[in-house]
Amino acid sequence: MAYLDSEDITDRILFVGLSQSGKTSIIQVAFEGMNPESTLDNQATLRFRKKKIELSGQIVSIIEVGGQIQFLEESLNTYKESVFSHLRTLFFVVDVANPDLFEKANYYLKQVCQNALDFNENTQIIVFAHKVDLVSKKEASRLIEKFSELFELDKISRAKVYATTIFDEGLIDIIQEIWEEQ
Ligand SMILES: Nc1nc2c(ncn2[C@@H]2O[C@H](COP(=O)(O)OP(=O)(O)O)[C@@H](O)[C@H]2O)c(=O)[nH]1
Ligand SMILES: [Mg+2]
Known about the structure:
Number of helices: 7
Radius of gyration: 15 Å
Strand content: 15-25%
Low-confidence stretches: none
Mean pLDDT: 93
Distance between the termini: 27 Å
Number of domains: 1
Shape: globular
CATH topology: Rossmann fold
Strand order of the largest sheet: 2-3-1-4-5-6
CATH superfamily: P-loop containing nucleotide triphosphate hydrolases
Bound molecules: guanosine-5'-diphosphate, magnesium ion
Largest sheet: 6 strands, mixed
Number of strands: 6
Helix content: 25-40%
């Protein structure tokens, strides 16, 4: 897909996850200086959203795959090469406050990871247990444990989980640390 392929040999960060999990908001708050409250009325991302940013002194492309099933499926099929090549870090965002969707998230997490690791076996796989502000600390731990088991994260090499919220001012630091760990 020309939109994704053009002039793009920079390292990439990919944000994937179901609709409404918080992908656009994370990018807006961490990289575009937006207030968390202003993300409330975000519209669904259609197909892809792409942005170049500077992270630890390096130019990086951030790509968000729209979370509707049609876009997830397209990214795994038609646009697979465009989406997964040059990928260094994959962020899979899960709305931790919506456990009814864990199964569905798991279905896509598995496929997305498979593709990412097929293209680059060293891709960093990061799962954001996101919107932790909506649940108590205790409940968050329980939910993270629940989906870590369901997602079989221990079987995905180097996969790591972070509890995140756009209301945490340290969100950008978490992303930066992950990037620098690579
Ligand atoms: N409470 C809470 N809401 C969030 C958080 N992150 C995103 N949201 C909200 O979730 C909704 C969907 O966010 P969006 O970024 O469009 O999700 P996307 O479809 O994954 O890109 C928006 O109303 C956001 O304000 C978070 O950490 N906590
Ligand atoms: Mg979006």
